[in-house]
Amino acid sequence: MSYLSLPESFFSRVAPTPVSEPKMIRLNEALAAKLGLSLDELKSPDGLSVLAGNKRFDGFEPFAMAYAGHQFGNWVPALGDGRAIQIGAVLDSEGNETSIQLKGAGPTPYSRQGDGRAAIGPVLREYILSEAMFSLGVPTTRALAAVTTGEAVYRDRPERGAILTRVAAGFVRVGTFEYFSARGQVDSVKALAEYVIVSRYPGLMDSPHPFRSLLGVVVESQADLIARWMHLGFIHGVMNTDNMSVMGETIDYGPCAFLDEYNPSKVFSSIDRFGRYAFQQQPNIGLWNLTRFAESLLPLLGENEDEAVEVAQSILGEFEGHFRSFYDAGMSKKLGLSSSNDQSRSLSSDLLELMGEASSDYTLTFRYLSSVLREGSVSSHRFRGLFKDPSGIESWLGRWQEVLRAEGVSDEVRSDRMLNVNPLFIPRNHRVQQVIDRFVEQDDLGPLESMLSVLSSPFVESARNMAYADPPEPSEVVRQTFCGT
Ligand code: AMP
Ligand code: MG
Question: Model confidence over 74-104: pLDDT tens digits?
Answer without folding.
Answer: 999 999 999 999 999 999 888 888 999 999 9
